[in-house]
From TrEMBL:
<dbReference type="Pfam" id="PF07944">
    <property type="entry name" value="Beta-AFase-like_GH127_cat"/>
</dbReference>
<feature type="domain" description="Non-reducing end beta-L-arabinofuranosidase-like GH127 catalytic">
    <location>
        <begin position="332"/>
        <end position="429"/>
    </location>
</feature>
<dbReference type="InterPro" id="IPR012878">
    <property type="entry name" value="Beta-AFase-like_GH127_cat"/>
</dbReference>
<keyword id="KW-0732">Signal</keyword>
<dbReference type="InterPro" id="IPR008928">
    <property type="entry name" value="6-hairpin_glycosidase_sf"/>
</dbReference>
<protein>
    <recommendedName>
        <fullName>Non-reducing end beta-L-arabinofuranosidase-like GH127 catalytic domain-containing protein</fullName>
    </recommendedName>
</protein>
<dbReference type="GO" id="GO:0005975">
    <property type="term" value="P:carbohydrate metabolic process"/>
</dbReference>
<feature type="signal peptide">
    <location>
        <begin position="1"/>
        <end position="17"/>
    </location>
</feature>
């Protein structure tokens, strides 16, 4: 964002702050509980180093090209076309939700123009009565996709002040209509069969009633106009509709109700759907902002805790192949869950400032997300498995409700939601990587190479973090500012006690993070340099059924399985799995077949792990980084080939403490996100026989 835009933004902020304050004076009405930390407007934070390379790949890959060729975006009903993959009409809004932050973070005029074409089309086609979107009948007008569209709009309004007024106006008109619909027995939210409603046959909208309020809260906080009471009531009505539909997440995040087992041993519902859950983790907090019911806070912590404890993937996401899968390394974890967990954890961190939420966001960002993408960002999986020795149409069915083709890297290897939703991951991660506490305390919350440029109390300020993190623990900040302020760096909870820092090349000191996990500095000179060395150690994750996972810092390490003869064919139509016609694909879109050409059935000795720097971890990283040859640091382990059966068309559950004999081999582990075929949950060798 250039200086002019920043000044403009500041001006709007100030102006609206006054409007808002006045509204609160004239009406002693309700206040939303503020976030502990404020976000910076989209565009203030940009990426550099490996993360910028990733965003460029994303912009030049599938995500940045869907607008031009993909039928569910380019020919979506939202743009006057005829293609939708479901009654929800959600595909183009999913796309919009990520193209806006991607376009503004990489500052790419092609993508900005895509976003603007969509904005212009949709706002100029807003219906007389205020409805946003292509639907014209009661039966097809479902609220859900509007939640995604409004996510895109609010980001747009922040990034492009020239569009703010127009966007806010459209949101108000829509909110007024929505209010009247919801008051009329939740029209558009709960289907009435007597009316022939057909906008949400699977109850996704009723399971996600907190998502629209996220944007309405933004409107209420920033641009309430004359509408505060109506906005507030609309938010309440969304929650009330969810309750009426039996989708109150506060009834689910309860001990004894929350499932400790997975399918097929549980009864499925909207709550056991993995993407719903990843989103539902935000529900109690969005509600808390309104009700101030203090019980919702421990409930949120428990919800996150149980989600990871009973259904967490080693890579930082949820195991659910549609519905929860417990801890099985055979089961699928959807790409949508990785990006929604990143978004939820960043949201919760910003609200509560609890360190583990940010650690969780990083873990999904550096493991689950990249593992699901081809190195060039032109193909993605629908589901990934923790142990995944091949990626192809499986000969049997390990998943609960995903086609056996679901772990293929392709265009739409199952439902197309991940085709249109994977793109939000890194752009939103970058956008939430710095936050503001109070008036002038800035926190680097999600670590990676990024730069923040902002204006605090009228003074320009920039913080640039040069780093290869998470591939290295070394961070170097160049800070330039014209005022005194506090700068804090979030210290991940895995960082060991010998982590150090120094300011302006003075002596190194030990890090002493405060109780929030923050290492804070008073910045008073115009130019300051801060260096931080986070010391990583190899961590062995909690055994699951005797098998272990290996971490080094935030990275999960996995067996580097070779797939020397990867092949591909044209992308298949997800509905009938026939080849898509040539006018529906591009030369870069493929569905890949990856078969292991090296051994994968190893048990390891977890005490034998050693690190190796393939190349200096502090020199410029390769791009694409999430490729077998990319990451600079590898781990070696003593291992033995064991009898490990194939079941359900894939690697069976790891044998429990298999007895091994004979010479061990040294096997190489690389970051999971780079190992498109991988074993990440290893049997521990019983070495009595060695
Ligand atoms: C203030 O709030 C009350 C109750 O929510 C509402 O009836 C009234 O219309 C509001 N007044 C203004 C000026 O918005
Ligand atoms: C309101 O909706 C419920 C289902 O959500 C339905 O049973 C009831 O008949 C509806 N009432 C009216 C007046 O339409
Ligand atoms: C607020 O309401 C008044 C009176 O209805 C109207 O004149 C004014 O334009 C409204 N302001 C905004 C920002 O909508
Ligand atoms: C407050 O939240 C708790 C936890 O969700 C819930 O059990 C309780 O009913 C809520 N209280 C009120 C007054 O809504
Ligand atoms: C679970 O909650 C406890 C305390 O409530 C906390 O110490 C622990 O870190 C949490 N675990 C996870 C995985 O969030
Ligand atoms: C995948 O294999 C299953 C049998 O396991 C078969 O029914 C299905 O047609 C195959 N799909 C593709 C895309 O080849
Ligand atoms: C830095 O370390 C050197 C050598 O240990 C010591 O002599 C010096 O006093 C230290 N400087 C400060 C400012 O602590
Ligand atoms: C911090 O890391 C840099 C680069 O790896 C190294 O030169 C320096 O000695 C480290 N400092 C400490 C105190 O470990
Ligand atoms: C995909 O398959 C469905 C079901 O056979 C069919 O209706 C649709 O036209 C196909 N889409 C394309 C783009 O070929
Ligand atoms: C390619 O992979 C298949 C297993 O899917 C294997 O049978 C074949 O030998 C491999 N070919 C080469 C040239 O490695």
């Amino acid at each position: 964002m250039n200086l002019l835009l920043l000044l403009l933004y500041n001006f709007i902020e100030v102006t609206l702050f006054h409007t808002c304050a006045m509204a609160l004076q004239t009406n002693n009405s309700l206040v939303l509980v503020p976030f502990r930390y404020k976000a910076f407007p989209l565009g203030s934070i940009t990426a550099s180093g490996w993360l910028n390379d990733q965003l460029r790949l994303e912009a030049n890959g599938l995500a940045g090209n869907l607008f031009d060729f993909y039928r569910y975006v380019a020919e979506s009903t939202w743009l006057g076309g005829t293609y939708e993959y479901s009654e929800l009409h959600e595909s183009a809004p999913y796309w919009f939700n990520y193209i806006v932050p991607l376009a503004y973070i990489v500052d790419d005029s092609r993508l900005k123009s895509q976003a603007q074409q969509f904005l212009d089309y949709t706002l100029s086609h807003q219906a007389e009565d205020g409805w946003l979107g292509p639907e014209t009948t009661r039966q097809t007008r479902g609220v859900w996709a509007r939640s995604l569209f409004l996510f895109g709009l609010t980001q747009y309004a922040e990034a492009e002040p020239s569009q703010t007024e127009r966007i806010v106006k459209a949101m108000h008109r829509f909110t007024i209509l929505l209010n009247s619909m919801l008051r009329n027995n939740f029209t558009g939210l709960i289907e009435q069969h007597s009316e022939g409603d057909d906008f949400d046959p699977w109850g996704f909208g009723t399971s996600r009633t907190h998502e629209l309020p996220v944007s309405l809260q933004w409107l209420y906080d920033n641009y309430p106009s004359n509408n505060s009471d109506l906005i507030w009531e609309t938010m309440e009505l969304m929650f009330a509709g969810g309750r009426q539909a039996g989708r109150d997440w506060t009834r689910f995040f309860v001990e004894g109700v929350f499932p400790t087992l997975g399918t097929p041993n549980i009864v499925t519902s909207g709550f056991t759907h993995g993407v719903n859950l990843a989103e539902g983790l935000r529900y109690p907090t969005v509600l808390y902002r309104m009700t101030k019911n203090e019980s919702l806070i421990p409930q949120t912590f428990n919800a996150v805790n149980w989600t990871y404890l009973y259904h967490g993937s080693r890579a930082g996401s949820i195991i659910a192949d549609e519905h929860l899968g417990n801890l099985s390394p055979q089961r699928g974890s959807e790409t949508c869950m990785a990006v929604e967990m990143m978004f939820s954890m960043a949201y919760l961190y910003r609200f509560y400032g609890v360190n583990t939420f940010a650690d969780n966001a990083e873990r999904a960002a550096f493991n689950a997300l990249p593992a699901a993408l081809s190195p060039d960002w032109w193909a993605h999986q629908y589901v990934q498995q923790t142990n995944q020795p091949w990626s192809r149409n499986l000969t049997a069915q390990p998943y609960f409700n995903v086609v056996p083709y679901g772990n293929t890297f392709g265009l739409e290897p199952n439902f197309p939601c991940c085709t249109v939703n994977h793109g939000q991951g890194y752009p939103k991660f970058v956008a939430s990587s710095y936050v503001l506490e109070g008036e002038s305390s800035i926190i680097h919350s999600l670590l990676s190479p990024t730069t923040l440029r902002t204006i605090i109390r009228g003074s320009e300020l920039s913080i640039s973090c040069e780093t290869n993190y998470p591939f290295s623990g070394r961070l170097r900040y160049s800070i330039s500012c014209g005022l005194e302020f506090e700068f804090c760096i979030r210290i991940p909870s895995w960082a060991t006690a010998d982590s150090t820092f120094r300011v302006d090349a003075n002596n190194w000191s030990s890090l002493l993070p405060n109780s929030d996990g923050l290492q804070c500095f008073q910045i008073s000179s115009r130019k300051t340099t801060i260096e931080v060395n986070l010391t990583m150690a190899i961590n062995i994750g909690e055994p699951r059924n005797g098998a272990v996972a290996i971490y080094y810092g935030p990275l999960l390490y996995a067996l580097d399985i070779e797939y020397a003869n990867a092949t591909y064919h044209g992308p298949l139509n997800f509905t009938d799995q026939t080849s898509l016609p040539a006018d529906q694909i591009t030369p870069e879109t493929h569905d890949w077949v990856l078969d292991a050409t090296s051994e994968w059935r190893y048990a390891i000795d977890p005490t034998s792990l050693t690190l190796q720097e393939r190349f200096p971890a502090d020199q410029d990283l390769k791009s694409p980084i999430w490729d077998r040859q990319g990451p600079p640091v590898v781990i070696w382990a003593d291992a033995w080939v064991v009898s490990w059966e194939e079941t359900l068309g894939t690697a069976g559950l790891p044998p429990v403490n298999p007895v091994v004999s004979g010479e061990s081999t040294r096997i190489r582990l690389i970051p999971y996100g780079a190992a498109k075929l991988h074993i990440a949950e290893f049997p521990v060798a019983n070495m009595l026989g060695v």
